[in-house]
């Protein structure tokens, strides 16, 4: 009969996320994880598997607590407000990142995904979901008149995704409010509602 686990999985995953997030995948050993998570290496192998399996669990947990949570909170807002609130929170998180850890998902896309087809797929699926959130917001805003129709909703979804990734990468070396808000303003200008057509003056 298997012994019950003597630790809270959520608590130790939070610790694993923090370690991977700060140090990255390659620089982390299973011994490092054991120390960070307060477990023996045998407990880690028994509960999660090898380092790669722990990283997958930690990344899934991070995505659930960050992107999935954020989309869920903002999805109910008016579409233009949802986009602006999303980026407002991202900028604040980036400016408050004193250790310059960046975004674990973006870090994984740069460090792990190029060499691992499974992580390529996992990260791609998350980014597709974020892009789809932006596209849904834009389409809804175009329908209610709060967002202009000069650009298609799919293209704006891609542009907003690109801006998000750019902010998260750039903020690791230049976490400057003017810089990050300056990145956002030109893209937000594309969201401005269409100008109302001027009515022809009455014929006298």
Topology diagram in text:
Elements: H1 9-23, H2 30-37, H3 41-47, H4 51-74, H5 79-95, H6 104-111, H7 117-144, H8 153-170, H9 177-189
Helix pairs in contact: 1-2, 1-4, 4-7, 5-7, 5-9, 7-8, 8-9
Describe this structure in words.
The chain is an all-alpha fold and 204 residues long. It folds into two domains: 7-58, Homeodomain-like (Arc Repressor Mutant, subunit A, Orthogonal Bundle), CATH 1.10.10.60; 77-191, Orthogonal Bundle (Tetracycline Repressor, domain 2), CATH 1.10.357. The chain has nine helices and no strands. α4 runs parallel beside α7 (117-144), α5 (79-95) runs antiparallel to α9 (177-189) and α8 packs antiparallel against α9. It is elongated and about 65 Å long. The relative contact order is 0.10. This is TetR/AcrR family transcriptional regulator.
């Amino acid at each position: 009969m298997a012994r019950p686990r003597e630790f809270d999985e959520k608590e130790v995953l939070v610790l694993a996320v923090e370690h991977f997030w700060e140090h990255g995948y390659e620089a982390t050993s299973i011994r490092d994880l054991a120390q960070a998570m307060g477990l023996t290496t045998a407990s880690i192998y028994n509960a999660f598997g090898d380092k790669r399996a722990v990283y997958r669990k930690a990344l899934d947990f991070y995505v659930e607590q960050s992107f999935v949570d954020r989309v869920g909170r903002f999805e109910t807002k008016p579409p233009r407000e949802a986009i602006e609130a999303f980026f407002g929170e991202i900028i604040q998180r980036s400016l408050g990142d004193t250790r310059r850890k960046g975004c674990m998902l973006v870090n994984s896309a740069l460090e792990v995904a190029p060499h691992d087809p499974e992580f390529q797929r996992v990260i791609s699926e998350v980014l597709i979901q974020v892009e789809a959130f932006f596209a849904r917001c834009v389409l809804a805003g175009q329908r209610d008149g709060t967002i202009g129709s000069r650009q298609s909703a799919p293209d704006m979804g891609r542009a907003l995704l690109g801006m998000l990734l750019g902010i998260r990468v750039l903020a690791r070396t230049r976490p400057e409010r003017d810089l990050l808000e300056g990145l956002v303003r030109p893209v937000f200008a594309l969201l401005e509602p269409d100008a109302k057509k001027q009515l022809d003056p009455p014929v006298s």
